[in-house]
């Protein structure tokens, strides 16, 4: 397998701080091998910028193997770039051709203020999880394995939802900046399992209402599931809508669940 | 105790401050965006039911003048010996009006919420994968349908804009109205807007109401396509048949 070398033109959003005005800067890359990842390409560009005494491009990244959810930028108008089911770190330069112009922009949402350049603050996602994305159990000796039977299909569906890495691409891709796919995934991976039942309704109510303090509302475009690096389905959004209604209807006094808030 | 580290700007900006929680549950339910989507889905279904019934009723035009005039008379005297004249009709009309108001109010407030959720848009062109013409244009097709509804009532129910209007002569009023090519063209264009609106609306009903099951999920787009297609063909046939002189 031979390596192709690419010469690219980058248009990168540069912004010095949360309150500064941003602008696109154009950079010519040195020759990039097409087996480099997108973030490695940015590393090479940054090395050149440092050598030329220019402030390097700030971007979020951590594991670089698609499991941490730290990286993520808009690449040519698509969250995480043109390849389905991959985070920016797993997007490789073989997706591009020599001579291409690549436009790179940070996630845009009121809840995701820009910290610098391509890095945004996604603390709003943490607020949603804090409001109910957990189960309350007494800690102690580890229980026996398989002491709580979980149907295989439920385990699989919960696992599909739990694949969410919290990168925020769903919010970034959504024309309404809605956080529905993220919140519904975080709800579903607990609401589908026996351990999650005790707090199901208080969790559904609290997480939906916290989400709505930060994000827009769903208009069922389905753009989020196309952008999701874990290919999480909007089926979970339907489930969340159902659970929210039930959370409002159910007699929670009988179920021993306090009202949230 | 461990000290929590925080970096500058790690606080999440609240876009929509929560309302006080002292209200009864239907109010707090409607205050939430998910609740508003439920209201939009249910009122949308009600209005869809009206559009279907309206289209089927109008098909009586093809049975002849007596049939559709009798149908119009029957609507005004619905349940007549039991209820006073036109009372049931007015109850239905008020129900439809309430659903329309709720549908529009929810849509308007959600649109404002969505604009607030991204005050600074993308500065480079977006490349959408799933967004389609119908889903993107819901606000505009909805507005077109609303404006057309006003004209439609003035033209064929009240008769203000139809010089040949005679109350109760449904068939003649329809033919007189649609014989004007400008009115017929506006009618056709607005019915295309209705069909486009319904295509995304019907699909959205399934999602908003959590009607999601792998067994029939593939059918959801087809149901939306079939229903909006049938309504489009049925409604658009009236002006075309009148202009073509088949119905006169």
CATH domain class name of the largest domain in chain A: Mainly Alpha
Number of strands of chain B: 0
Strand order of the largest sheet of chain A: 3-2-7-5-6
Under the CATH scheme, the architecture of chain B is Up-down Bundle
Give a quick account of the main beta sheet of chain A: strands, pairing sense, barrel closure: 5 strands, mixed
**Main interface: chain pair and counts:** A-B, 58 and 56 residues
For the CA atoms, what is the radius of gyration of chain B? 23 Å
Poorly predicted spans of chain A: none
Topology:
The complex is a heterodimer of chains A (261) and B (248).
Chain A: E1 5-6, E2 9-14, E3 23-28, E4 32-33, H1 38-51, E5 74-75, E6 78-79, E7 101-105, E8 114-116, E9 119-120, H2 123-130, H3 152-162, H4 169-173, H5 180-191, H6 200-214, H7 223-227, H8 235-249
Parallel strand pairs in A: 2-7
Antiparallel strand pairs in A: 1-4, 2-3, 5-6, 5-7, 8-9
Helix pairs in contact in A: 2-6, 3-5, 5-6, 5-8, 6-8
Chain B: H1 25-31, H2 33-58, H3 65-76, H4 87-117, H5 133-136, H6 138-158, H7 170-178, H8 181-208, H9 217-243
Helix pairs in contact in B: 1-2, 2-4, 2-8, 2-9, 6-8, 8-9
Give the structure's gist in a few sentences.
Chain A is 33% helix and 11% strand. Chain A has 8 helices and 9 strands.
Describe this structure in words.
- The complex is a heterodimer of chains A (261) and B (248).
- Chain A has 261 residues and is an alpha+beta fold.
- Helix content of chain A is 33%, strand content 11%.
- Chain A folds into two domains: 112 residues, Roll (Ubiquitin-like (UB roll)); 128 residues, Alpha-helical ferredoxin (Fumarate Reductase Iron-sulfur Protein, Chain B, domain 2, Orthogonal Bundle).
- Chain A has a five-stranded mixed sheet with strand order 3-2-7-5-6. A two-stranded antiparallel sheet of chain A has the order 1-4.
- In chain A, strand 2 and strand 3 form a beta hairpin.
- In chain A, helix 3 runs antiparallel to helix 5 and helix 5 packs across helix 8.
- The longest helix of chain A is centred in the C-terminal third of the chain and has 15 residues.
- By secondary structure, chain B is an all-alpha fold.
- Chain B has one domain: Up-down Bundle (3 helical TM bundles of succinate and fumarate reductases), CATH 1.20.1300.10.
- Chain B is built from nine helices and no strands.
- The longest helix of chain B is centred in the middle third of the chain and has 31 residues.
- At the A-B interface, helix 2, helix 6, helix 7 and helix 8 of A face helix 1, helix 2, helix 4 and helix 8 of B.
């Amino acid at each position: 397998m031979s390596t192709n070398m690419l010469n690219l033109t980058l248009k990168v959003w540069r912004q010095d701080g949360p309150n500064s005005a941003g602008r696109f800067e154009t950079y010519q890359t040195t020759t990039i091998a097409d087996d480099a990842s997108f973030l490695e390409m940015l590393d090479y560009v940054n090395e050149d910028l440092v050598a030329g005494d220019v402030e390097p491009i700030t971007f979020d990244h951590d594991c670089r193997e698609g499991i941490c959810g730290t990286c993520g930028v808009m690449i040519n108008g698509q969250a995480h770039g043109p390849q389905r089911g991959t985070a920016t770190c797993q997007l490789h330069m073989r997706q591009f051709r020599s001579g291409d112009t690549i436009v790179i922009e940070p996630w845009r949402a009121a809840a995701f203020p820009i910290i610098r350049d391509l890095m945004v603050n996604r603390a709003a996602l943490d607020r949603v999880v804090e409001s109910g994305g957990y189960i309350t159990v007494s800690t102690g000796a580890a229980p026996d394995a398989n002491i709580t039977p979980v149907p295989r299909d439920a385990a699989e569906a919960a696992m599909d939802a739990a694949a969410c890495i919290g990168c925020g691409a769903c919010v970034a891709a959504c024309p309404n900046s809605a956080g529905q796919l993220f919140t519904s995934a975080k709800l579903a991976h607990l609401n589908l399992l026996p351990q999650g039942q005790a707090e199901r309704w208080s969790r559904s109510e609290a997480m939906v209402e916290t989400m709505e303090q930060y994000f827009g509302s769903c208009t069922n475009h389905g753009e989020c599931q196309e952008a999701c690096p874990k290919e999480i389905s909007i089926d979970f959004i339907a489930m969340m809508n159902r659970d929210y209604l039930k959370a409002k209807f159910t007699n929670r006094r009988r179920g021993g669940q306090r009202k949230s808030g | 105790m461990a000290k929590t580290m925080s970096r500058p700007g790690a606080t999440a900006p609240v876009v929509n401050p929560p309302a006080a929680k002292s209200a009864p549950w239907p109010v707090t339910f409607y205050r939430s965006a998910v609740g508003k989507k439920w209201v939009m889905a249910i009122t949308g279904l009600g209005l869809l039911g009206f559009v279907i019934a309206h289209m089927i009723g109008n098909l009586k035009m093809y049975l002849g003048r007596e049939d559709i005039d009798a149908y119009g008379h029957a609507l005004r005297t619905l349940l007549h010996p039991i209820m006073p004249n036109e009372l049931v009709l007015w109850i239905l009309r008020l129900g439809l009006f309430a659903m329309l108001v709720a549908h529009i109010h929810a849509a308007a407030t959600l649109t404002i919420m969505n604009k607030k959720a991204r005050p600074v848009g993308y500065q480079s062109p977006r490349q959408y994968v799933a967004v389609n013409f119908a889903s993107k244009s819901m606000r505009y097709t909805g507005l077109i349908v609303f404006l057309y509804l006003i004209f439609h009532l003035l033209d064929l129910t009240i008769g203000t804009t139809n010089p040949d209007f005679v109350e109760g002569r449904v068939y003649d009023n329809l033919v007189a109205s649609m014989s004007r090519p400008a009115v017929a063209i506006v009618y056709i264009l607005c019915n295309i807007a209705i069909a486009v609106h319904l295509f995304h609306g019907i699909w959205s009903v399934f999602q908003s109401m959590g009607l999601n099951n792998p067994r029939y999920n593939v059918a959801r787009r087809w149901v939306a396509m079939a229903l909006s297609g049938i309504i489009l063909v049925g409604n658009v046939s009236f002006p075309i048949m009148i202009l073509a002189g088949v119905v006169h």
